[in-house]
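Exercise 3.2. Students should predict the tertiary structure of the chain below and write it as structure tokens, then compare their answer with the key that follows.

Predict this chain's 3D structure.
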Amino acid sequence: MELGALKPVLAGLALPPASLLLLALLGLLLAWCNKKRSGLTLATVSVLLLALLSCHGTAVWLARTALPQFAPLNLADLKARKVQAIVILGGDVQPVAPEYGRSQPAAATAARLRYGAWLARQSGLPLAFTGGLGWAAHSSQKESEAEVAARTLQQDYGLALRWSESESRDTAGNARLLAPLLQRNGVQRIALVTHAWHMPRAVLAFEQAGLAVTPAPMGYVLPAQSELLEWLPSAQGLQASRQVLREWLALAMGRFLPA
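Answer key:
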């Protein structure tokens, strides 16, 4: 097994819900081992934290406070900063989509493709896409993210990729493998399309690869329901909190383990 394959496993254990469920189980074990007060306290705190992180309102607060913020792209900045290409980052695929009979972009990738296609039409800039088979990819996944993205852009938007990179397995690989393809064609200044919560790590990776980056974030974590529903635990709220915490953890680890 490659070491990179451990990344999604370790992240899954470190992030909610697994981490908090394990702490709750540890608390119950301590209570069973004659440390009732401390064990029940740990279990209770773990469950309460899980409930809090399951609220979309918590995810919104975390996104605003735990991660660097990037404003939405002003189209005028593309010209002012002499951007030469729009780069879209992959965000996973559905390896099996029976209704279509072949792989399809996952929700995150589909949203990034839509925004990238819109930017390309507004600006006339060429498109690049980077994404292979991620470390967490299911064994049934045969097509890379880049292959699926190229087909989707052509079929749904009538657009073709100028550059396509299909070997990378994570964000650092996206930057490391795509940058030389762009630079061989004289491209040094890019607009980078990915989710707002993923943008801090993505910008850092592409700048380290030698490119000048204009962030083009999308998919912000923002209030989406009534105030009451924002503070009721839900699967969607937990997923949003988990995404933000995952990026915060990756940035923190990057300070000790630079790419």
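Discussion points: The first strand starts at residue 85 and ends at 89. Strands lie at 85-89, 93-94, 104-105, 127-130, 163-165, 189-195, 212-218.
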